[in-house]
Design brief:
Blueprint lengths: L11 H5 L20 H4 L6 E5 L5 E6 L5 E7 L9 H12 L5 H6 L4 E4 L4 E7 L4 H13 L5 H19 L2 H14 L12 H5 L3 H11 L5 E7 L3 H12 L23 E5 L5 E9 L6 H25 L6 E5 L6 E9 L3 H15 L6 H17 L4 H13 L10 H4 L4 H11 L6 E6 L1 H10 L5 E3 L7
Helix pairs in contact: 3-6, 3-9, 5-10, 11-12, 11-13, 11-16
Length: 464
């Protein structure tokens, strides 16, 4: 990420035409679809980004008067062994929360959001507390020592989350897919630590992870709301300007290559009346044109798949298609749920529908609807200061300039042929691994009759 100070309007000119009048309604869809009344009613705030000499980045987002939300974003948590980076951030929130003097300075609750690659610690306060809030967050972040009590509480949370996911068919399916796609020994195969790894956490180990992962290059400050940018810059310089970088990120695993499917994998859950069907493969990296083209083509695939399942089988479950974005291990998934007695029919219809959807010519109207919906959703992220902060945090985690949003300027480089070609590659059913979570006795006979297989049973005791 560049260290050059570069205040800018995030997506403003591209999305809402604040740099000048847009094209007429009669021009090509590739230039700009007409805005809806709902879109015109939303105004994007000014977003600026500056960097210190040590690489520490600050994002400032204009917000409503009378309140300011301040947070620190940590990137590269996914570079640590499964779950360690997230545990570190959780322990920081526990250790540096209500029991510390910093909490009194913040004057509000210290909240936390964690994703696969990063997380944000943040607080909402009055504008007059801005300088003190920034200083307190710096103290919280820059001190690597943790208490044993914080680590014990973090371990209890991690064990509880594992138990919750162990009962979730969708979580089981995604964990199984990662293992099949990336290999059981790869760090990409799982995001959660094993039980024995959680039990081995100590203050010393998480402190060492802090020194390796947390530094000015991998951290950013995000300020949303009623604040003077000059005041923010001065406070950041005082609190973070002398921060030396000690981080040593672990080497990233190589990007896996897609390969033809050789089997259908089943995670057995005997007695389960419903089957979760998950298909997936290695996805293009976040921010790439291929990822954007996938987002444009996904609605057509979802609609075609939902139509086939509804018309042929009467299935009314929703169909999901998205990329689970991880910096080094992105994975594309398509998921639906069906009655266990109709698993074979539904899987065959799903594969057939995917093969048909990637060839359909109906792209123009679908693309317009997809883009309009995406733009409107992205704009609404800024209606809440917390949503804005978390959105900017995600840009920081994944090293994206625009959050992988499909703005009209970028859309102008794409055409329906590019979208169809990308869909044909990414949705090719021959290259999609298949994971089923359900009763193996129900599933096995159905797949055998339809000659779908061979069938491979994954570890019945596996946990996500």
């Amino acid at each position: 990420m560049s260290r050059t100070a570069a205040p800018r309007l995030l997506l403003c000119a591209a999305l809402v035409g604040c740099a000048g009048a847009g094209p007429s309604r009669n021009q090509s869809w590739r230039n700009r679809p007409p805005e809806s009344a709902a879109q015109r009613a939303i105004t994007l705030p000014r977003v600026s980004r500056t960097s210190l000499a040590n690489g520490f980045t600050t994002y400032f987002v204009e917000g409503r008067p009378g309140v300011v939300t301040v947070g620190v974003s940590l990137r590269d948590l996914g570079a640590a062994p499964a779950g360690t980076g997230r545990a570190l951030l959780q322990a920081l929130a526990i250790d540096r929360g209500p029991t510390t003097a910093a909490y009194d300075v913040l004057g509000g609750d210290l909240d936390l959001r964690i994703e696969a690659e990063g997380g944000v610690l943040y607080v909402t306060a009055l504008p007059e507390s801005l300088d003190a809030s920034i200083e307190a967050l710096a103290t919280i972040l820059r001190t690597p020592d943790l208490t044993a009590e914080a680590v014990e509480n973090t371990a209890r949370i991690a064990h509880s989350e594992r138990l919750e996911r162990a009962d979730s068919p969708s979580a089981l399916a995604l964990a199984g897919l990662r293992e099949v796609v990336f290999g059981a020994d790869s760090r990409c195969a799982r995001e959660d630590p094993a039980v024995e790894e959680i039990d081995a956490w100590t203050a010393e180990r998480l402190g060492a992870a802090h020194r390796r992962l947390v530094g000015p290059e991998s951290t950013a400050l995000i300020v949303v709301g009623d604040a003077d940018p000059a005041r923010v810059a001065a406070a950041v310089e005082r609190s973070f300007g002398d921060w030396a970088d000690t981080t040593k990120p672990l080497p990233q695993p190589p990007q896996a290559e897609p390969r033809p499917r050789t089997a259908v994998h089943v995670i057995p859950r005997r007695g389960l009346k419903q089957t979760t069907i998950l298909l997936g493969r290695v996805a293009p990296p976040a921010g790439s044109d291929a990822a954007a083209l996938f987002t444009l083509g996904a609605p057509t695939v979802r609609w075609e798949l939902h139509r086939r399942l509804r018309q042929e089988l009467g299935v009314t479950y929703g169909v999901h298609a998205w990329i689970h974005r991880r910096q080094t291990c992105p994975i594309l998934t398509i998921r639906t749920d069906v009655d266990g007695n109709r698993t074979g029919e539904a899987l065959r219809a799903t594969l057939s529908a995917l093969d048909n959807a990637r060839r359909v010519q109906r792209m123009r109207a679908d693309v317009e609807r997809s883009v309009d919906h995406d733009l409107l959703a992205r704009m609404r992220l800024y209606e809440s200061s917390v949503q804005a902060l978390e959105h900017i945090g995600s840009l920081h985690w994944y090293r994206l300039e625009d959050g992988d949003v499909i703005d009209h300027e970028r859309l102008g480089r794409f055409d329906t042929t590019m979208i169809r070609n990308t869909s044909a590659e990414l949705f090719d059913p021959r290259d999609l691994e298949i994971i089923l979570v359900g009763d193996p006795e129900l599933i096995r006979d159905q797949l055998a009759r339809l000659k779908l297989g061979p069938l491979v049973i994954l570890d019945p005791e596996r946990k996500p």
